[in-house]
């Protein structure tokens, strides 16, 4: 199964109702199967659909009513930068395929698609591809040793002793302290964290035209992206293509 084929796909209940559409896919920790789907209804209210609720997947996803409070597993690795073990760029992850003997990363660079097996890939904030699975295991073991040694060094280092504060003179009156209003944490997540604008699409210009399955334009090259364009791309199952064509222009 291609992960990108799920994005924007319509959900159907066994009774024929349409509870929403798919926004994002999450994988199991071993990367071999779908863990859950982040979805939204017609009012853009989000919910999490676990894999066990998916009954079938074709032109639409038939799913039961089971929901979970938060995503499980890891986000599907799409749009991540890809490097080899020497730090040379190999391109960008355009898709992830699970319906094979071994999951594959589809990487695109300069319009050329290359597939790399999961056994040679080390996934983190970026994707690193090694010449063999043995090289990957050695690199992962070395990184784990370094992290262990760093943690041990921090634990052995004695904490800094703070200089004692001399007592205030008895005659010195300490004025009452005013309680300052609690400052809002700028890093606190907001309701827009999972909105489409997390990809910074709004206001950008499309670098390469995007068409739906019938050949009708979803967004033309040079057109500025609006909420209406994103909505049309989502309904046409072209949201990922719009994102790639706008931010990287690699497909």
| Number of beta strands | 15
Biggest sheet statistics:
7 strands, mixed
Please compute the radius of gyration using only Cα atoms.
Answer: 24 Å
Global morphology? globular
Oligomer status: single chain
Please report the distance between the alpha carbons of the first and last residues: 19 Å
Mean pLDDT: 82
Helix content: 10-25%
What pattern of helices and strands is seen along the backbone?
A: EEEEEEEEEEEEEHEEHH
Q: Runs with pLDDT <50, length 5+?
A: 185-198
Describe the structure.
By secondary structure, the protein is α+β, with helices and mostly antiparallel strands. It has helices at residues 133-156, 227-235, 239-247, and strands at residues 10-12, 20-27, 34-40, 46-50, 54-57, 61-63, 74-75, 81-84, 89-97, 104-109, 112-117, 121-123, 127-129, 210-211, 217-219. It is built from 3 helices and 15 strands. The longest helix is centred in the middle third of the chain and has 24 residues, at 133-156. It is globular. The protein starts with 9 loop residues before the first strand and ends with a helix.
Can I get a quick summary?
The chain is of the alpha+beta class and 251 residues long.
List the helices and strands and how they pair.
Blueprint: E1 10-12, E2 20-27, E3 34-40, E4 46-50, E5 54-57, E6 61-63, E7 74-75, E8 81-84, E9 89-97, E10 104-109, E11 112-117, E12 121-123, E13 127-129, H1 133-156, E14 210-211, E15 217-219, H2 227-235, H3 239-247
Parallel strand pairs: 1-6, 8-13
Antiparallel strand pairs: 1-2, 2-3, 2-7, 3-4, 5-6, 8-9, 9-10, 10-11, 12-13, 14-15
């Amino acid at each position: 199964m291609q992960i990108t084929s799920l994005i924007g796909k319509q959900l159907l209940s066994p009774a024929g109702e349409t509870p929403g559409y798919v926004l994002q896919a999450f994988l199991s920790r071993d990367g071999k199967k779908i863990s859950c789907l982040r979805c939204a209804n017609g009012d853009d209210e989000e919910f999490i659909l676990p894999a066990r609720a998916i009954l079938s997947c074709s032109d639409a996803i038939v799913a039961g009513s089971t929901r979970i409070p938060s995503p499980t597993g890891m986000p599907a690795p799409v749009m991540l930068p890809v490097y080899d073990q020497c730090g040379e760029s190999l391109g960008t992850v355009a898709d992830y395929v699970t319906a094979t003997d071994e999951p594959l990363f589809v990487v695109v660079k300069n319009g050329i698609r290359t597939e790399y097996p999961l056994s040679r890939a080390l996934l983190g904030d970026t994707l690193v591809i090694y010449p063999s699975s043995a090289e990957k295991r050695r690199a992962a073991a070395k990184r784990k040793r370094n992290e262990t040694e760093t943690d041990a060094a921090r634990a052995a280092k004695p904490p800094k002793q703070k200089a004692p504060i001399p007592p205030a003179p008895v005659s010195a009156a300490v004025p009452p302290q005013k309680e300052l209003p609690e400052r809002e944490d700028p890093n606190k997540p907001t309701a827009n964290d999972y909105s489409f604008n997390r990809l910074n699409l709004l206001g950008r210009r499309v670098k390469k035209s995007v068409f739906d399955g019938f050949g009708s334009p979803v967004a033309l090259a040079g057109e500025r992206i609006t909420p209406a364009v994103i909505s049309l791309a989502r309904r046409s199952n072209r949201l990922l293509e719009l994102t790639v064509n706008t931010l990287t222009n690699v497909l």
